[in-house]
Structures are given as C-alpha cells and as structure tokens.
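Case 434 in the screening queue. Each case pairs one protein sequence with one candidate compound; here the compound is adenosine-3',5'-cyclic-monophosphate. For every case the pipeline is the same: read the inputs, emit a complex structure as tokens, and attach any notable structural observations.

Predict complex for case 434.
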Amino acid sequence: MPKHADSFQRTWDLLVAVGAVVAAISIPVRLVLNYQAMVRMTRLDWALTIIFSADMLLRLHRSGWLGSRSSPGTSKPAPPYAWQWFVIDLCAAIPFAAFSAPSFLQLLRALKVARVAEGMWRWRGVEFQNPTVIRLALFFFWLALSAHWIACGWLALRGISPDLDRTTNYLRALYWCVTTLATVGYGDIVPSRNAEMLYAMLVMVLGVGVYGYVIGNVAALLANLDPARVRHRELVDRITAFMRYRQFPASLQGRILDYYEYLWENRLGYDESAAISELPPTLRTEVSLFLNGDILQKVPLFRGASGDFIKAIALEMRPIIFMPGDYVVRAGELGEEMYFISRGTVEVVSADDKVVYATLTTGDFFGEIALLLREPRTASVRAIDYCDLYSLSIAAVDRVLTRHPGVAAHIRAIARQRQEETEKRQERDEGGPF
Ligand code: CMP
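Case 434 output:
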C-alpha cells in the first residue's frame, strides 16, 4: 500500500483531533457566556460540521457500512466501526444551531474530543524518544481541558455577573477552579447556593485526586526524564556511602568522585564493553566500529589501513581511563597491552621519572615495544591529564598483526626507532656530565 496514503490518514486524524479540541473548548464557553447567540451558525460551526461529517463518512466507508469494506490508501485494515463511536461521530457532525435546536444540545458536539483520547490510547504502544515527556504533556493537556470545563460549569451554575465583562467573568471562574483544584482555596469566591456547594465539594475531591496524582507520579516522571543520570547518581551515592563507612582518606574519596564525574561527562557513565558484550557478532562489529570510530580516525596508523584490519582492531579495542598522575605502564615491567590515545596527553619518562623522553597525545600509540619485541617496558608512561585510552591485549595484537604483516612491519619500525632513541638518551644520561 502506498506510503503517502498512511501519511494522509495521519494528517486527517490530526485535523479531526484539532477540530475536536477546538469544539471542546469553544462550545462550552460560548454556551455559558452566550458569546454568540447559539442559535446562529458561525463560520467555526460550519468548518467543524464539514470536518466531522467528512470524518464520519470516511469511517463508514472504511469499515464497510457503506457497502465496500475496503480501506483505501491505508496499509492496515480498518477496525470495525463500533456503534458507540458512530453515535459520537454523528452527534458531533450535526449542526444543531442550523436546526434551531436547544443550544445545550450543542454540547454533544464536544463529545468528539473522545476521539482525541482514543487516538492517544492507540499511541501508547508506539515507542517514543522520550515517553516520559509525552506522558507529562498529555497529563497537563487533559488537566487544562478539565479546568476549562469545570470553570464553564461554575459559570453555568452561578450565572454571569452583568457588572463584569465576559473575559473577567471567565477568568474569575477559571481562577476559582484552579485554586479549588490545587486545594489552595483562598476563599475569596465562595459558593452561596446548595448546588454551588455540592459542585465545589466535587471539585475539591477531584482536586485532592489530582494533587495525589501529581505528587505520586510527576515527581517520578521528572526523575525518570533522564534515566542515565538517575542510574549514575545512584551509583555515586552507593560508592560515597561505602567510602564513608570504610573511612577512606578524604583525598582518595575526592579522586574517586572526580573519576566518576569525568566518566559521566564523557561517557554518560556507561561501560561500553559491557553494554555491547551481549550483542550478536555482526552487530557487535558494527557497534564497535561506530563507538571506536573517532579513535580509528585519529590514529594516523589506521588511516590508510584495509577495512578488514579496521574491523578486527575495532572489535579488540577496550576503552580505559587514566587520571592525571596515573602510571599507564612502568619501566621494566612485562608488557601485556599496548595503548592508543583517544583524548589527553601522556609523558614517556625514565624509570626514575627524571627524564622525559617524549610527550604523546591524541592519535599516538605506545606500549608496542614490549609486545612486539618481547622485552620489558623500555620506559614508564604517565598520564598528564585525564586520558581516554584504548587498549589492545598482547593476544589481540598477535592475532591481528599476523594477518596484516604490512601494518605489523610499520609498527615494528616505529618500535625500533623509539627503542634506539630511548637507549641513546639513556646512555647519554648515564654517561652524564661527569
Ligand atoms: P614499551 O617499551 O612497551 O613501554 C613504554 C613505551 O613508551 C614504549 O613501549 C613506547 O611505546 C614508548 N616510548 C619509549 N621510548 C619512546 C620515545 N623515545 N618516543 C616515544 N615513545 C617512546
């Protein structure tokens, strides 16, 4: 079925919904304020009549009541037309004013707003980007509409005050409704007759319900607006409680909290490798390529490499964070991993920290000498600021490089060159000035 037909259906439904909301707002207010003599058809009445009649005919046609049970232009079969809906659609389509019918009958047209509620009910299965915001918006929409109806009901009960203009009359009624619904009740507008008192009590009871709903749900809804942040905050709270219980030194507590802050700011607190570990291999490769895309772009070594090599590397790389002053590798240790710098700066220093051989930054790699030449680490590497690194294990390096001898030769050449350079510096420094 053509796609444009579905989009026509959606646009039409939206138009009907807008018409229904306009009817639900305008008809009661006009009725109580006698804004237009309700016996006369206005342009709005005509427009609503045309839209609602067309909607009813369309539904009759689609559901087969008019003979053919086809659903032209839609990809889904039309649902059967329940008679309750038919009655509502019919009432909404009748231009009562044109027949000089009693004006209160026009309220029946406002029932069409039930179609809006039905549409929203159907939406509940649809996955939204931010369902909490949608729920919150819908709740306030219905709350505002209900407040409007209650205000109109109040005006109908009390009658309009001839000393005040229509807007002030309506605003006073709305003001009474909001203060009563919110259970504030200033008491400056008080019910005087029995019917008014009964009505006010009803609204108060409703207000208590609304208040309970708001307190119970909206707070939770707001908290869930950002589930990642909520989870992160819970984690940090748990860790803070543990650190206090075990009386961690204040400086250590500070560093741990700084680390979580950095993690939150840069990775939204997600452990990437854990998050993708359960995906099937093809998806995992794709996600790894996407997640590690920036580092693969940044490292000059990878730029001209084949797609196969990039895929293999992307799958094996593990993100790891170091804090300022941390040692990533120590001179003399055995090497288990090599590292690529995604963000941050490290210093390559001598075993005693006194000589800085080089400063490496975004896109550089280190730790390859020990892996490729099977020798102890030639130098220590220390993070200067927060460093986002990607590590490759010795097994992964062996696996990937045996299949890509060209890249292996390139890395090996860099390793030799660095090793020679460092050895020269060491000899010079050991020879020293004396
Ligand atoms: P590895 O010996 O495994 O551990 C220390 C790392 O520091 C080493 O690998 C190199 O990657 C790096 N490195 C050592 N010397 C230099 C240098 N002169 N310039 C740049 N990097 C170096």
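Case 434 observations:
- Strands lie at 318-322, 327-329, 337-343, 345-349, 356-361, 365-366, 380-383, 387-393.
- Residues 329, 335, 348, 357-358, 366-370, 377-379, 381, 418, 421-422 surround adenosine-3',5'-cyclic-monophosphate (CB under 6 Å).
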